[in-house]
Design a protein that fits this description.
The strands form two sheets. Strands 5-4-1-6-7-8 form a six-stranded parallel sheet, with helices on both faces. The longest helix has 15 residues. It is of the alpha/beta class. It is elongated, with a radius of gyration of 18 Å. α9 links the parallel β6 and β7. It folds into two domains: 142 residues, 3-Layer(aba) Sandwich (Rossmann fold), CATH 3.40.50; 71 residues.
């Protein structure tokens, strides 16, 4: 589950732990994921798919993204699956994304400032993503965000991944906080479901991917326009209003 975080001493904070989704929440990675798909398709002489189509598949990890994309191609081109098995295509994608991960991704406005404010106030931070651990590590390192996340849980770090509540439950135990003292922030219905099932505050941002569906439809506990607004709320110190 990554490096453990030392539990906080008593502080006048309602939230002692905030976990963050990665893609579409902290970093806009759509361009680099699409570029890896494009390079893979080029290698096999396949027609490139629109970036918007690829973006709508982000959220369950790259293996799931490529699986769903290739199933569409197999349906459109009978005989392709026999000639070009999925695992062959995915291995090539994985090769390309190992290079492009973090190279085109950009943290969303105010990301670093928000994370620093939270950490300086004593809030524990963790990144919980369905992106494979090795790719998530590269994105965080390349974008300069790794220093704020001593704990990173990727989609293949554990035998299960979001929205399984055990992902957050294990994080709470490792950080020494209760569900009432924690929140999870994401851009998708998967993140809202994960938070709800684990009993932590379900926070969301509206600018991510979520398969093109407005995140408001998932009814998060709170919707934030930006990452700095998340820090403002978490550090407000009003235990009767937060969450």
């Amino acid at each position: 589950m990554g490096t453990s975080i030392t539990p906080l001493k008593d502080r006048a904070l309602k939230y002692r732990l905030v976990s963050f989704d990665l893609d579409g929440t902290l970093v806009d990675t759509a361009a680099e994921i699409a570029e890896s798909v494009h390079l893979t398709f080029d290698d096999f002489a396949l027609v490139r798919r629109p970036q918007d189509e690829i973006t709508l598949l982000i959220g369950k990890g790259t293996h799931e993204l490529m699986s769903r994309l290739m199933q569409r191609l197999y349906a459109e081109q009978p005989g392709l699956q026999e000639r070009l098995p999925f695992e062959t295509v995915f291995a090539q994608f994985d090769h390309h994304y190992a290079v492009t991960a973090g190279q085109l991704g950009r943290p969303y406005p105010g990301c670093e400032d928000a994370l620093e404010r939270l950490r300086s106030a004593g809030v524990q931070l963790a990144c919980v993503t369905n992106k494979e651990q090795r790719h998530a590590e590269r994105v965080l390192a390349a974008t300069g965000l790794a220093r704020w996340f001593p704990t990173l849980i990727g989609g293949d770090t554990l035998p299960y991944k979001k929205p399984d509540p055990r992902v957050i439950a294990g994080l709470l135990q490792g950080c020494g906080v209760t569900a009432a003292q924690a929140a999870h922030l994401g851009d998708s219905s998967i993140d809202v479901q994960t938070a709800r099932s684990a009993g932590v505050a379900a926070w969301a941002v509206p600018y991510g991917y979520n398969a093109g569906v407005p995140i408001e439809q998932s009814t998060p506990d709170r919707l934030f326009a930006s990452l700095p607004a998340v820090a403002d709320w978490a550090l407000a110190g009003d235990s009767t209003a937060a969450g």
